[in-house]
Amino acid sequence: MSGLVQYVVVRGDLLRSLSWPVGAVLAQACHASSAVLHRFGADENVKSYFAHLESMHKVVLEVQDEETLRSLAGKLTEASVDHHLWIEQPEGVPTALACKPYAKPDVQKYFKGLKLYK
Q1: pLDDT tens, residue by residue, 63-100
Q2: Non-local CB neighbours of 39 within 8 Å, separated by 6+ positions
Q3: Which pairs from 46-54 meet CB under 8 Å and 24+ separation?
Q4: pTM over 0.70, yes/no
Q5: Which of 20, 34, 87, 91 has the lowest tally of Cβ within 10 angstroms?
């Protein structure tokens, strides 16, 4: 077991306020996760995460809206936490972000206070 976790954060307003279909919202989380794993594929944490496919650990969280998602992305950038902010095209709308896999204690503090996506 690698002991690594990948945090994925999705905008809650896509489903509730903007009436996106459930499948489209799920796709946003998948896009963000795939993108960050591709971008940082040479990273040792990513390699270790993939070496243990049967024990991958993801935590999918929710933020209220675009502003909150952008704010979180900014905090992660400032802290040098590798992540990818997914911008849905052609709309140009930020919908989700995912960080590369990290040891939970290394990044958990950035995601405290966020609730599991429901």
Answers
A1: 999 999 999 999 999 999 999 999 999 999 999 999 99
A2: 82, 84, 100
A3: 46/100, 46/101, 48/2, 48/4, 48/101, 49/2, 49/4, 49/6, 49/101, 51/2, 52/1, 52/2
A4: yes
A5: 91
